[in-house]
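Thread title: Can someone regenerate the structure for this chain?

I was given the following input by a collaborator and told the matching structure tokens would be attached. They weren't. Posting the sequence so someone can regenerate them.
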Amino acid sequence: MSSIEKVAVIGLDCAEPSLMFEQWIDDLPNIKRLMAGGTYGHLTSSMPPITVPAWSCMTASKDPGTLGIYGFRNRGDRSYDKLMIATSLAVKEPRIWDIIGPQGKQSIIVGVPGTYPITRPPVGHMITSFLTPGTEDPKITWTHPAPLRKEINALVGEYMVDVKGFRTDDKKWLLDQIYLMTEKRFKVVRYLLTNKPWDLFWMVEMGTDRIHHGFWSCMDESHHAHVPGNEFKDAIFEYYKYIDKEIGQTLDCMDLDKTAVWIVSDHGAKSMVGGFMFNQWLINEGLLHFNEPPKPKQRFDVKDVDWSKTKVWGEGGYYGRCFINVEGREPSGTVPQSQYEAFRDEVAAKIEAVTDHNGALMGNKCYKPEEIYDRVNRIAPDLIVIFGDLRWRSVGQVGNDSIYTFENDTGPDDANHAQEGMYIYTNPSIPAQGRVDSPTLYDVTPTILTQLGLPVPSDMRGKPLHAAVT
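Best answer:
Regenerated them for you:
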């Protein structure tokens, strides 16, 4: 390991290994070169495999329970109505730049989710992530040091942390915005790599996620919304080629004889069959009651719930969060604590027995947080529910005759997340090992610490990758 002086991580949110490693590899020369010279394969994501918390899980090597972050929105307390967005304020565990800074190592961090607002500046430079409210308001600090924003604005104009309003039917506008965001991000990255000191570089590009959610049905002929011959059928393919070109130009800014390089995703992508109306199903099962009969396509609101009769409610998203209304725990709890475990098992069995719109078993899976996490901090769902092996999303609407929907309640969306993301790992001091599918995202940070000659904290969930693949 002594020849390694720097580590560079290029994160591609939602990058799908089957597209990168198999379907399109011959059209991705830079990716192919890295694969040939290193180790690559599936990178198992966190449970749930969601951008927030997955990148914090990767950079801290801690699971969602330890972080106390179970998705974008989390219960702030045991009340029914306090849901909080998981910003950096929720991340209490040290991430890799927090660990290496006191050891004299400098970092360049760009777009890694969970970095806004900047509460613990790294030793080095940081640009915050897609949950940043914006980059034009001078009151919003999205760079460290703060004056870095002037350098970036001079370089690319208005910097884009995300494509705002990416769930849209205006596909031409969306595609243009994704390319513009990605072009600006990589231009800024190359400027930083060339002009700022660094031992660790870690960026995350959101364009891969946005293009999957926006254009998967255009590509996938088996998707229920696919239109044969549509003008965007090659949009994802062309974008992957574009990303490969940007990666190649970025690698040119590094001394690859002394730099370990990673390409990673936090989770993969797959076609979304449809949405399962979780709360409507709970109503049908007699577990959730409203004060008044819900209207068609009514958005779920805790204010409409009759808590004196309700035993279970859910929150929507790419996975389902199932909460039990426990007596003495929630304000108007109805399920006695002595019956909690048996009742939770009963609910899980009901969920796992659900069939799809064709009458076939959907393939749902329920997880108890205390059984899959090292610790359970803050307020976790009572059950973490994966609908149909992530081919169905949890929809929050109520009031429909059917519990199945093929229109997303939060705007157009073609894809769901997949449990397996991807990684490519090259280290000039270790021979190429080809494809190895055993690593998890928790292994990335311990490996980087080893590469930088630093000890791995004993409370990290992962282990150095060179040990995991040999």
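The first helix runs from residue 17 to 23.
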